[in-house]
Amino acid sequence: MNLANESITSLRQRLVAKEITPTDIVTDLAKAIEARNPALGSYLSIDVEAALKEASTADVSQPLGGIPIAIKDNINVTGQPCTCGSKFLQGTYTAPYDATSIVQLRAAGAVPMGRLNMDEFAMGSTTENSALGVTRNPWDLERVPGGSSGGSASSVGGHIAIAALGSDTGGSIRQPASLCGCVGLKPTYGRVSRYGLVAFASSLDQIGPLTKTVEDSALLLNHLCGKDSRDSTTLDESVPDFTSGLKSGIKGLRIGLPKEYFIEGVHPAVSAAVAAATKHFESLGAEIVGVSLPHTDCGVATYYVLAPAEASANLARFDGVRYGHRTAIQGDLLEHYMNTRAEGFGPEVKRRILLGTYVLSSGYYDAYYLKAQRARTLIRQDFEKAFEQVDVILSPTAPSPAHKLGEISNDPLKMYLEDVFTIAANLAGLPAISVPCGFADEGGKKLPVGLQLVGPHLDEATILRAAYAYEQSTDWHKAKPSI
C-alpha cells in the first residue's frame, strides 16, 4: 500500500474516509522498516506487536488517531528501552513511565512506534557518537544523517517513519532535518515539557517534531505544548491552533537576513540555495530586510561552555549505584565511580563532562561560566533588537550538506561548527524551523539543503506560516531518496 511514504495529513484524510485503518498503517510501516532499516540504521528497537495492539483500539476521530510516531531514544515510553545511544543504559534500563510529550500524543490518538538512534546522550552532530551503531543518510548511505536526532531525521527522510520526535539542544532537530531533507521544528523553550526527556543541558533542551511537511509539524505541535506541573520551566501560555493560520500567506512579512550568517566558509551550494529561497520569499510578497546580530561570533564558544557545564551536573546521576551500567571491577567507592563511568561513557560524553567540570571549577567559574552567561544575554538581546525591525529571521540551517561517514568525527571543532547557525536560537530560547530548499550535487549524489527560519519568543505561528508558504510554492519537499 506504500502508506509509509505518506504524510500525517494525507493518512488522516484516508482514515476518516475509512479507506484504511490504523493497523494498515502500522503493518505497512513495519514492512518498510524491515526492508530499509538494515541499510539506514535509524531504529534501535521496535515493538510492532505493541504498536499493532494500540492501533487496533485507536479512535480515528481524534486529531492524531491511529498515526504511528517514532521516538528518539532519550524520551521515555512506558515498558520500552531508553538507551540514549549509550552503553550505560543499554540492556539495563526500561522506562517505567511515559514522558509528558508521549502522554499528550497518546491523548490525541497517536501510537508511539520504535526507538530511534542518536548521538550518545544527545552529544554530537553526526550520530556517529552513538555507542549502538551507525545511522546513515537516506540520500547517500556513505554519509551522516546529522545529529543528535540522526535516527529521527533518517527515518522520516527515508520514509520508514510517518513522523518522529527529536530533541534540540543546539540544533539537534534542525541540522539533521536539513541534511536528510525533512522538516524539523524547535519550539520556544518552555513550550513543550521536558519531563521524561533524559537531560543533557536543561536550560537549552527542547522536544520537537521532525515531519515530512510543515502542516504535519504544526499538527504535532498542537499536541505537544502546554504547562506541565512536573516541569517548572514550562510556560503557562495558551496554545493556539498552529494549523489555523498556515494558509494566510506572507504578503508584507518582514524577513531579516543577518549579515553575520552569510559568511565565507559556507558550502557554495548551500549559499546558492538559500539565496534562491530568499528571492522566492520576495516573489511571494515578503519584504527582505538586512539585520545584524553582532554577537553571533560568540555563539559557539558560549554554547560549549554552558552546555557541557549543565551536562556535567546532569550526568552525575549515572554512577552505577542507582541504575544503568555498573562496573564488575572491585574497589572502593571512588574506584567504583571511575571504572563505571569510564566503561559506560563514550569519548564525546567524557570530553564534555571534562569541559563542563573544568569551567565550573574553583578559579575558573568567573572566567568561563559567568562570562558565558553574560554573552548569552547579549545574544538574546541581539535577537530582541532585530525583531523590532523584522518578523522572522532567515539563514542557512547548516553550513554544508551531509559529510561522509568518518570525515569529521575525529575533529571535534569541525563537528561543533556544524551547529554554528542553529545554536543561537537555543541560547535565546527562540522557536526555529528548518525546511528543505534545494540540493547540493556531491559526486553525482543529490544531498538536501535546508533553510532556517527563527521567530520571536512564542511566535511559532509566524515561522510555520512562512515555512508553509515557501514549501507549498516549491517542490523540494516532494523529492524522495532512492533507498
Structure description:
Helix content is 36%, strand content 13%. The protein contains 15 helices and eleven strands. It has helices at residues 8-16, 22-40, 48-56, 100-107, 150-157, 174-180, 214-222, 268-283, 299-314, 333-344, 347-360, 365-386, 412-417, 423-428, 460-472; strands at 43-45, 68-72, 111-116, 164-167, 183-186, 207-211, 254-258, 287-291, 392-396, 432-442, 445-454. Strand 10 (432-442) and strand 11 (445-454) form a beta hairpin. The two termini are 17 Å apart.
Give structural attributes:
single chain; 483 residues; alpha/beta; Amidase signature (AS) enzymes; eleven-stranded mixed β-sheet; globular
Summarize the structure.
The protein has 15 helices and eleven strands.
Assembly state here?
single chain
Output the CATH homologous superfamily of one domain.
Amidase signature (AS) domain
- The chain-level mean pLDDT equals 97
The name of the CATH topology of one domain is: Amidase signature (AS) enzymes
CATH class of one domain: Alpha Beta
SSE diagram, text form:
Blueprint: H1 8-16, H2 22-40, E1 43-45, H3 48-56, E2 68-72, H4 100-107, E3 111-116, H5 150-157, E4 164-167, H6 174-180, E5 183-186, E6 207-211, H7 214-222, E7 254-258, H8 268-283, E8 287-291, H9 299-314, H10 333-344, H11 347-360, H12 365-386, E9 392-396, H13 412-417, H14 423-428, E10 432-442, E11 445-454, H15 460-472
Helix pairs in contact: 2-3, 5-6, 7-15, 9-11, 9-12
